[in-house]
Amino acid sequence: MGTHFITDDCIACGACESVCPVNVISAGDPIYVIDTEGCIECGACDEICPVDAIKWDTTAA
Ligand code: SF4
Ligand code: SF4
User: Fold this and answer.
1) CATH number for the domain harbouring residue 8
2) Which of 13, 16, 29, 40 has the fewest beta carbons closer than 10 A?
3) Which residue's CA is minimally distant from atom 5 of ligand 1?
4) pLDDT 10s per residue in the chain (61 long)?
5) pLDDT value at position 31?
6) The domain containing residue 28 runs over which residues?
7) Do the Cβ atoms of 45 and 31 come closer than 8 Å?
8) Closest atom, ligand 2, to C-alpha of 12
9) Residue 7 near residue 55 (C-beta atoms within 8 A)
10) Whether the CB of 38 sits within 6 Å of ligand 2
11) How far apart (Å, rounded) are the C-alpha atoms in residues 22 and 37?
12) DSSP the chain
């Protein structure tokens, strides 16, 4: 299990924020950010992102 994060490719469209069932995605500066503490790793944000900016860091503990 890795860490879910948003890369610089994010265009701040807000789509991920609206689909997150636990509301852990919020608008940051300049890109959106995921509060990984609350993320249930459902994958919904990953599927909806139009620019594939949401990644899983499988190297993280
Ligand atoms: S994987 Fe699911 S719970 Fe985690 S940030 Fe994305 S939409 Fe939210
Ligand atoms: S769906 Fe993708 S491009 Fe849109 S705000 Fe989320 S991470 Fe950024």
Assistant:
1) 3.30.70.20
2) 29
3) 39
4) 568 899 999 999 999 999 999 999 999 999 999 998 999 999 999 999 999 999 987 765 5
5) 96
6) 3-57
7) no
8) 5
9) yes
10) no
11) 11
12) --EEEE-TT-----HHHHH-TT--EE--SSS-EE-TTT-----HHHHH-TT--EEEETT--
